[in-house]
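In keeping with the milestone schedule agreed at the kick-off meeting, the structural modelling team has produced records for the first pair of proteins. Each record is given below as a sequence line and a structure-token line. The laboratory manager (R.T.) confirmed that both were archived under the project's standard naming scheme.
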Amino acid sequence: MLSPQSEEPARRRPTKEGEADVPRTQVGARIPSTIAKRLARYCFEEGQSQQKAVSEALDEFLRSYGY
């Protein structure tokens, strides 16, 4: 990956301890605004990213159905 200002490879954000360096894919979904507000509040109060919160919740949901 190249950074926009130079031809040098862009630096990757260092992973947090315990966070696996796994490939990521962007997924879009329209959710009710009430859920989005609850998610934002949870993430603010817990100091967690929305990406991590949604990823963990979706993983738990899918595992509960055997996926």
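The second protein of the pair:
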Amino acid sequence: MSTNGHPDQESNTEFGSDADTAVTAATAIESAGFVRVITRADGDALAASGLLTAALSATNTPFQVTVGRTIAERTERATCRADTADASDELTVVFGTVDEPAREHAIRLDSDERPATLAAADTVRELGSRDSDDSSSPAETRTQTPTDDPPGPEPTLDPVLALAGLVAAGVDPGAGESEWVLESARERGLVERRPGVAVPTADPVDGLAHSTRLRAPWSGDLEATREALSPTGLDLDQPETFDGDDHRTLGSLVALDVVGADDATETAATSIQRVLRPYAITSDEYAFVTVGGYAAVLEATARAEPGTGAALAMGLDAREPALAAWRAYGSRAHAALESASTGRYDGLFVVGIDDGPVEAVAQIALAYRSPEPTVLAVGSGEAALATRETGPSSGSIAATVEAIVRDLADDGVQAAYDVGHRCGYLRFGAAESASEPASAADPDSQDAVTVADESTIIAAVRGHY
């Protein structure tokens, strides 16, 4: 019995295997009167939260979804209600790393080595209940309350949302453990592979100009993108008329522009292959035209507008605000790259930007511009790391980011941070508490925060590469 009164839930939730986690979590969820879902701010974890909350909706279990930008934020939110008198039938489920205090009160479903989407899918299957949608509430927190209606028939897991989450985690649809997810989507007639490029919108100009999954000379500019696509001879305003050959023509031109860019690296040819020949979503019940495009919107909203992203993952009608957030996210990322300063070190490529989403900048640069296996994008008050390296010899990105934070602390720089799949995020000069702004520190006190400049961050990161 845990401190929250859920049977068979251990106080230390670092379970021994994926199957153990799913079984233990399912048991705790079934006995919970209210479930708080706290998720990492990325597309994989957002999709995982959508899969889990769909199962909760199907059983008429009330829930709340909160997106935590850093480990400190998730830890605080996971522990802040643990000791309240009315929390005995509440359960907190976390996707993403949390610190030790939260592990005593919450179940973490995912792990650093495995996508959150797969962990959520395992738990939903264990529960024997699958997809549904409902919910409401603005901003970063979304809450579902019970109704008087009895639970409906058990719905099936949404394989399209699951595929989108896996793509956001860097997993090719159907690869490894995800094979059953792709087969489920195919058997239900929800996806089919076709030529072309993975974008969320039917409009190719809109989709390509704002995509953070590729980098071409025209990226971020609608008019330049339209002009670049004009040699195809396609009627770009009538994408519904495109056949397989038309999509193939479009994909070929995009690939040539991407790899032929003056500052493209050798990795660009490999990276663009992950965006070509997408899985098209063939059902009208979904808001986006390809799985890869769906993944891109989840990723953008998770970081830029988490409330909208949570609503989208829960199946609410959030298409237009989600696309607006995705467009702004992509435009800012490409504009930042256009004016960025760069520096190359042994094993590390540094991109300095004035403004823009640092995670997107780091990932685009890694895929298409970096000659080194790791990219550091440094902006105003935040930075992101992205790496291509995998396997035992590459070390742990989590351990590296934690070490960087310790080094910054030694220099008097306070930093909040997060880690994901082959990526890390730093917010420096920020308060550790999600409820305490950095400006709350007394500049005359011994505990005052030192605001780091770009050179301080670069020096701390270079010490680990």
